[in-house]
Design brief:
By secondary structure, this protein is mostly helical. The chain folds into two domains: about 1-70, no CATH class; about 105-175, AhpD-like (Up-down Bundle). The chain has helices spanning about 55-65, 75-85, 90-100, 110-125, 125-140, 145-160, 160-175; strands spanning about 35-40, 40-45. A two-stranded antiparallel ribbon has the order 1-2. The chain is globular.
């Protein structure tokens, strides 16, 4: 899809330094305007005149692209791992063996380990990992409060990005599971 203008007023951004050369046509993302720099005036957002105005359909497509809705997964995590096991067994077989060993009961229960894996997945911001480990934790008897307490450790250690994943992906999964 070609870029198009989304009607909005340019908004001044903080001055980065004096005497900057103009930055031309630097896209921030699919819908944000471009940055320009004017010596003495700082960095400002501006819409290049060469871009056409967006119609309503293009605006909706831009919104979908920002949300990631334009991209659909070809494989689920499980399907993709099965394909990789066929195509790179020298990597996937040891990985699977380690995963089975690490996630089994030992000094820590399998449930406790899965709660740890949920926290690590959140801190790493891996949505597919979050989905897999929340599901596994629930199957091992973890409760909603236990999963949320585990994610609180991730929030403490990983900050805002972890909070974003807990407040969207984890809550969605727990609600879907009725936990």
């Amino acid at each position: 899809m070609p870029y198009c203008k989304v009607a909005r007023q340019p908004r001044p951004l903080p001055v980065l330094s004096q005497g900057l050369d103009p930055i031309r046509a630097f896209p921030l993302d699919f819908s944000l305007p471009y940055l320009t720099s004017i010596p003495g005036e700082g960095v400002q957002r501006a819409l290049p005149d060469s871009l056409p105005e967006c119609d309503e359909e293009e605006r909706e497509e831009t919104r979908k692209q920002k949300k990631g809705e334009f991209m659909t997964a070809k494989y689920s995590l499980e399907e993709g791992m099965a394909v990789l096991k066929e195509q790179i067994p020298e990597v996937m077989n040891p990985f699977t063996a380690i995963m089975e060993q690490v996630t089994s009961d030992n000094l820590l229960t399998a449930k406790t380990k899965r709660l740890m894996m949920v926290a690590v997945a959140v801190s790493q911001r891996c949505e597919q990992c979050i989905r897999a480990h929340v599901k596994a934790a629930l199957e091992l008897g973890a409760t909603r409060p236990e999963i949320l307490e585990a994610t609180s450790v991730a929030i403490l250690m990983a900050g805002g990005p972890a909070m974003a994943h807990v407040s969207t992906v984890v809550l969605e999964l727990l609600d879907e599971a009725g936990a």
